[in-house]
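[Protein data]
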Amino acid sequence: MYGLIGKMLAASGKREDLLAILLDNNDTMPGCLSYIVARDPASEDGIWITEVWTDSEKHQASLQLPHVQAMIAMARPIIAGFGERFETEPLGGIGLPARV
């Protein structure tokens, strides 16, 4: 499995708008096992996104899906930047299949 944990920064006062875009435009993405969007309680503008994919290739391919491209286009004007980004190798847990 392939995992990503990343921080996104919304333009000042636009976090709720950005959260709505991220949550309302995440249709099925082949290979995506988990896609979690969360407020950062330590930052007025911070958002954490946690993703688990079957593999990194499926994640890369998802960036070309029409609904993902549309979501990126809507979100881009209110994204102020990005913070930390971590790649992980998930092994399983609640809601994920056990790794063989």
About this structure: The radius of gyration is 14 Å. Helices lie at 15-24, 56-62, 66-75. DSSP finds three helices and four strands in the chain.
